[in-house]
Amino acid sequence: MTVIIQRVGVNDVIDLRHEVLRHGLPRHTAQFDGDDVPDARHYAALIERRLVGCATLHPSRWDSRPAWQLRGMAVSSGERGRGIGRLLMHFMEKDLLDTPVLQLWCNARVPAIGFYQKLDWRVVSGVFEVPTAGPHVKMIRNLDGELRRNGESEQSPVR
Q1: What CATH class has 3-150?
Q2: Quick one: CA dihedral 139, 81, 46, 109, positive or negative?
Q3: Helices and strands, number each (H, E), in the chain
């Protein structure tokens, strides 16, 4: 099985975001402020042209400096545990090498903390509640040293 990961338009990721992250809520809750900003980056993981994963980066700030905010990270329920999320993150990180900003942050759902930690993200806050999505923590990842040295991220085949 081949997974294709590519940049896409925001409209290509809304349905999966809604299904995974906002199930039971109105569809418009899967549309985020900043999705239509020209510099926003939306990513899709496709298997046989079927969307199975997505992630979005919004230009933002962290600690008063330019950063990217990761939002809408989702993998369809039938595809979880196969490495698709990891491939999405590696592709996204490599794609950022053409930008001067390599600081990332996100509000991660508590059950996803381990996933991010395996990818070298760090928890930098206590648990807080997002009314439509449950308990979260703030996490950060600085790509500057590691990716500039390596020039690219490693990708593994999907299981």
Answers
A1: alpha beta
A2: negative
A3: 4, 8
